[in-house]
Amino acid sequence: MNLPSDSELIENHVFDEIMVGQSARLLRALKLEDIRAFAAVSGDTNPAHLDPEYANDTLFHGVIAHGMWSGALISALLGTQFPGPGTIYQDQALHFVKPVRVGDTLTVTVTVLSKNPENHSIELDCQVVNQKGICVLSGMARVLAPTVKVRLPRVAAPQIQLYDPQVRFKQLLALGNKLDAVRCAVVHPCDDGSLSGAMDAARYGLILPVLIGPEVRIRHVAAEAGIDLTGAEIINQPHSHAAAEAAAALAASGQVEMLMKGSLHTDELIHAVLSQAVLRTGRRMSHVFRFDVPLYHKPLLITDAALNIRPSLQEKIDIVQNAIDFARILGVTTPKVAILSAVETVNPTIPSTIDAAALCKMADRGQITGGVLDGPLAFDNAISMHAAQIKHITSAVAGHADILAVPDLESGNMLAKQLEYLAGASGSGLVLGARIPIALTSRAEGPSNRVASALLGLLVAHNARRSQPRTAW
């Protein structure tokens, strides 16, 4: 049996041991995560604590901590150190002197002023001082001190994983700042999800929507769902096939710079695009998901989970290259690509491991450019440095992957849906490899996902404008 060490134990100070003038201290540095966690558990979402733009215009000229966060440190000191377990709060007076900012290191000190043997209460002076020696909080506490000595294993604080989808969404939208909206053909938007997604993207200034489909039906959907079609051009087409062909023709003639899937099958739209020779690039078209995952430290791209069912090695070259080029557009200078399989060693009986090894060697020889590849890698050691270390994997990619290249559509689709439904990830995505980006959206996606896909398309479309001659996306 392993007994806890002294550092893993917590011991209280009973009333009879405590002397007037005795004191205790606690040190704590304030991090931005502390402010967000306090807001989450308290419900105090005052923008002075969470919104830098608003906070810059306040008296304090920047984000500050909640006053009660500093007060909570006094409670932590009283309850865990002095007097410690068994302490019961009776009263607390606080005087807030100065603001506390991210990066400040606070020293919390409580000093015994008096003892009352009749009810075992003590009064303590409370001071909180920052790293500059400036008092930020002062006050007085009265507690009932414990009377029974205890020495217990220290309880670890629960971990809080903070993930704010709206913050991540705003950060993604910020990539499109100062970019003009592009004309986007929205193909057969005959349900409220696809129609509202297109109009939301227009309101965010990402696209100039060209709605292609049966006009009467589109207007009926808009009326039923309360969707404002102001600013949208409508091109009447009788059915989804005709809408896809019309949209592809507009793209081929340069009249639109992006396509967005509405309520039609993906293969209808892709077939129409491929029928326009000018939209082909010689590179295989593929889909890339972009996910913000709560438990991963950066955005994660997954390819191909929506278009290519069982890609060959030659097709995987294009799939990986499309994803690398896309990641670079998103600002990743040298994307790290993990070529996934079930194991991290080459096994002749598992074809995906052989493909992974071949892709990595092709990257070494310059047949795939712009990124760092490693594989085969199992999912765990692709995204977890700890898992890679346990398996003695030395890799520049393991634990830091920007792109996960999956063996086939089935595994990729299951991985993408698991991240979304079990890990709480928020996703968006594009079809790449044609002359213009294609935003694919599903009926299960929410409005923000559709807007995010439009933002990705905007970035790719503007990159194509700058490319001379236009390259493959």
TrEMBL record:
Acyltransferase listed as a keyword: yes
Domain named Phosphate acetyl/butaryl transferase: residues: 245-449
Pfam families: MaoC_dehydratas, PTA_PTB
CDD domains on file: R_hydratase
Keywords (A to Z) from UniProt: Acyltransferase, Lyase, Transferase
InterPro entries for this protein: Fatty_acid_synthase, HotDog_dom_sf, MaoC-like_dom, Phos_Acetyltrans/Butyryltrans, PTA_PTB
Official protein name in the record: Enoyl-CoA hydratase
Organism field: Rhodoferax fermentans
